[in-house]
Design goal:
489 residues; alpha/beta; two-stranded antiparallel sheet; 12 helices; elongated
């Protein structure tokens, strides 16, 4: 190959051709280097994405805890500085003696003194100390027999009494037994076969699983109007928490949906997970309040104010703090948790609103951290010639959600706690054999869960329903017609 020192014998045309060839080689070299740099950047981004996937777990993302395996994860909890156990000022609870005992057993004295052998006047003995043992009696079902009477008047007319309206069979089960059985299967999540065994052990009643299933269908019919009223109350609430989870029905994947407020709980099951199910239920179809959720895409189609669960956002911030090396995610977590603790302190002190100056400081700090994060994670521009939108980084997407949806309340725990028990039901029993059975579970579960939020025991609420007086729950109160609850409530 010729060098510039060898060009003394070349003509001007040959020298120009040689220079042009050199320039072309340099341009090709620069283009090749540019391509290699671009490819390296793409591969680095791909490696970072794959490493990010491997480093995600239930503590720094929305992955379920079952996906963690045996890996040790970092907890979001922080030391409170308090000593373990009950705190100063905590109202402790202990067993207290009853004023009146159901049974009294007096420990007998000897008839004669063991020193002088004189007779002891036992009738004059005084109670020195009392100790009580709390226990439950061995339960057994009671049998109530109804008899009709007949009598012929002196005029010859025959008079006959009638059975109560609900006593229609030669032998039948009463409302308390049906309420307890449905409470075991739908409230305590026991399978029908185990409930049958438990009823035999507790009450000496031989009840078949088929009979238990029939009572479940009966409870579904009795409670449907009350649950429709619960759905109406939820749809009118200013803040609603929503969540959804997979539910196995007839060996197929269906979807359990829940809409929850502090005073009401509603469940529904549908073959679809998205907006089709929301529209079919109708609970949130025209909702206009604040909807708290975990950023599942179909919820954005509801025309209302959206608030994101900060528990999910904290997990995403934890992941970014671990993977990006940037400081703003940890500072954002500290700020959010500090604001949450401040609001909790205000609630415990009976304060209905945090001072505006403190709120403004939180908001200013929050938005300053957003600006810091967005400066470090700018929006990516779509490359020329590529279709679709440019794929943004996890940090940019999270920052956009944090800016667009400043969340109130802090978490979506109300909805997530409501989802938890149906998942336990599925783990115990495997799946629902029929879609109608899953619907019955949702209907029945909505009613006692709402009752519990109003201070009514689940079993008492079911007793009221089987006594033809299901409760209606309006606002923070309850309406009970035709059935008297126990005095303890």
């Amino acid at each position: 190959m010729l060098t510039l020192s060898d060009t003394s014998t070349l003509s001007h045309e040959e020298k120009d051709a040689l220079l042009q060839e050199k320039d072309a080689l340099l341009e090709h070299k620069d283009a090749l280097i540019g391509q290699l740099v671009t490819r390296v950047q793409e591969l680095l981004a791909r490696v970072q994405e794959l490493e990010s996937r491997l480093s995600k777990n239930s503590r720094n993302s929305s992955k379920p805890p079952s996906s963690d395996g045996l890996k040790k994860t970092q907890s979001l909890r922080r030391k409170s500085g308090k000593r373990p156990g009950g705190q100063v000022g905590h109202a402790g609870k202990t067993l207290r003696q009853a004023a009146v005992a159901d049974h009294v057993v007096e420990q007998e004295l000897p008839e004669h003194c063991d020193a002088c052998h004189a007779a002891l006047p036992v009738a004059q003995a005084q109670v020195q100390e009392r100790r009580q043992v709390l226990d439950i009696p061995v339960a057994r079902h009671e049998v109530t027999e109804y008899r009709t009477l007949s009598l012929v008047c002196q005029c010859g007319k025959l008079h006959e009494s009638r059975f109560p309206e609900k006593v229609t069979e030669h032998v039948q089960y009463g409302p308390n037994i049906r309420a307890v059985a449905v409470h075991f299967t739908q409230g305590q999540l026991l399978p029908y076969a185990r409930t049958s065994e438990l009823m035999a052990d507790l009450y000496q009643l031989d009840i078949s699983p088929g009979t238990l299933h029939g009572w479940t269908r009966e409870a579904d019919a009795l409670l449907s109007p009350s649950v429709q009223a619960i759905a109406q109350q939820v749809s009118q609430s200013p803040v609603v928490h929503v969540d959804e989870s997979g539910l196995r029905v007839q060996a197929k994947l269906q979807w359990l949906h829940t809409s929850v407020t502090p005073t009401h709980t509603w469940y529904g099951v549908h073959p679809k997970r998205g907006i089709e199910a929301v529209n079919a239920f109708g609970v949130l179809k025209d909702y206009a309040g604040v909807l708290v959720h975990d950023c599942w895409a179909p919820y954005w189609l509801i025309q209302c104010v959206h608030a994101l669960c900060n528990a999910h956002l904290l997990r995403e911030l934890t992941f970014l703090a671990q993977s990006s090396g940037q400081a703003w995610p940890q500072r954002m977590m500290d700020m959010l948790l500090a604001a949450h603790r401040g609001c909790e302190r205000a609630r415990t002190q009976g304060i209905t609103a945090v001072p505006s100056r403190q709120v403004l400081r939180w908001i200013g700090r929050y938005r300053a951290l957003l600006d810091e994060g967005q400066a470090l994670n700018p929006q990516r521009v779509k490359e020329q010639g590529k279709r679709g939108r440019a794929k943004q980084s996890d940090a940019f997407n999270l920052l956009r959600r944090l800016r667009d949806h400043e969340s109130v309340p802090f978490t979506n725990n109300l909805a997530e706690r409501a989802i938890r028990m149906p998942k336990v039901k599925q783990k115990i029993s495997g799946c629902f054999r029929t879609f109608s059975g899953a619907q019955s579970f949702c209907t029945i579960r909505s009613y006692p869960d709402t009752a519990r939020k109003h201070g009514v025991g689940r079993l008492d609420a079911l007793r009221a329903a089987f006594n033809d007086a299901p409760m209606e729950f309006v606002g923070s109160g309850r309406i009970v017609t035709g059935f008297r609850l126990s005095a303890s409530l």
